[in-house]
Specification:
single chain; 371 residues; mainly alpha; 2 strands; 71% helix; globular
């Protein structure tokens, strides 16, 4: 654990300093786009924070590689540098979109290319822990992996609409994923707790921790499409890497839920963003627009319409992400019945938090009528 913590701390320091440097350069060279109609911020703010996040992630990976603790992870460095290459490509695509607004087909092409780099290097969904089920041929595995990676990238990108929203949600989810991958490594390899999924999670956590002080409301810099898609790419990669470390043939019925967690966790964490993505695509296609056309009808916008402040809407997303992440992790340690009870009670609290502005308005209205 100390090794992971050290890597995360070094990455966080690099991320904080790199973000400060990117902010300075954006101001120095006036790399600050005009405010768009759908934007909720009122002051022109740079949208190239993804560059700083990528720098921090690369440095974090290099630092981990220099430690003997991670020798087993870097024994086959090909997949790791494929992850770096895919991340670099998606940052370039995101930057171009942030600066000159790419056509959605060009943007999708870049996402598919980045996902293909990952999948072709061996970071693939090859099998599932359900009775030893094999996904299929190399081509089928590659296609499924590319689809999953592109889907997660877009889900994270779609919630990047408020200060600190995407970074915080991915950070909470990644922390839960790190805990899971570390415990799994302890159980499957008692003499070696180090894994590529754990390392990536620690590096991403550090990068987010260093970036959030600059990005939390009121934000001084945004991560932009480059940062959001990069974080989505890393989250998907960690999940796929953990799935590959489980031998499906050895998973019994009692072990099925813990074995499925690496597949289910990213989906559950991103359930609200994925729902937002689906609703946005349906909404835009019905209007005859591109699925990637921008609007101001995302769920975080609707939370503000309910009466939440900018920061309040972000905290609602944080709350729901914590609920689903922690409760899903609990299945790994305790029986299903207590977890369901905890989840049900916590969900009621989260719903009250979500609709609190409405309750407050109704209470005030009734109080006024009583007078």
């Amino acid at each position: 654990m100390r090794a992971y913590l050290l890597v995360a701390i070094i990455t966080a320091v690099v991320s904080y300093l790199a973000t400060w440097a990117v902010r300075y350069l954006a101001k120095r060279f006036d790399i600050t786009p005009a405010i768009r109609a759908r934007d909720v911020h009122k002051t022109p703010t740079p949208r190239i924070g993804g560059v700083a996040i990528f720098i921090a992630i690369v440095v974090g990976i290099i630092v981990a590689g220099s430690f003997g603790w991670f020798e087993s992870v870097f024994r086959d460095p090909g997949p790791i540098w494929a992850i770096v290459g895919a991340g670099g490509l998606i940052v370039v695509v995101g930057l171009l979109d942030d600066l000159i607004e790419l056509d959605w087909t060009a943007k999708m092409g870049g996402q598919i290319a980045a996902a293909w780099i990952l999948a072709s290097s061996g970071v693939q969904i090859v099998s599932l822990p359900i009775g030893g089920l094999t996904v299929g041929s190399f081509g089928v595995s590659l296609a499924i992996t590319v689809f999953v990676v592109v889907l997660v990238m877009n889900a994270v990108n779609f919630i990047d609409g408020l200060d600190g929203l995407a970074a915080g949600v991915v950070g909470i989810g990644t922390l839960a994923f790190f805990v899971y991958s570390y415990v799994l490594a302890q159980q499957t390899s008692p003499t070696d707790y180090f894994s590529i999924a754990g390392m990536l999670s620690a590096v991403v956590l550090g990068a987010i921790a260093g970036f959030l002080p600059h990005n939390f409301s009121p934000a001084k810099i945004f991560m932009g499409d480059s940062g959001a898609m990069l974080l989505g790419l890393m989250m998907a990669t960690s999940a796929i890497a953990v799935t590959g470390s489980i031998d499906p043939a050895t998973v019994t019925r009692n072990d099925l839920l813990p074995a499925l967690i690496p597949l289910v966790l990213p989906v559950v964490i991103l359930l609200v963003p994925l729902l937002d993505l689906l609703l946005a695509v349906v909404r835009r296609v019905r209007r005859g627009q591109s699925p990637f056309a921008a609007d101001r009808e995302h769920l975080h916008h609707q939370l503000q319409d309910l009466g939440h402040s900018h920061r309040g809407a972000v905290l609602v997303f944080y709350h729901w992400t914590t609920v689903v992440s922690l409760c899903l992790l609990l299945f790994f340690w305790i029986e299903a019945a207590p977890v369901i009870i905890i989840f049900g009670a916590w969900m009621i609290i989260a719903l009250i938090h979500t609709y609190w502005p409405v309750f407050r308005r109704v209470t005030k209205a009734r109080s006024s009528l009583g007078k």
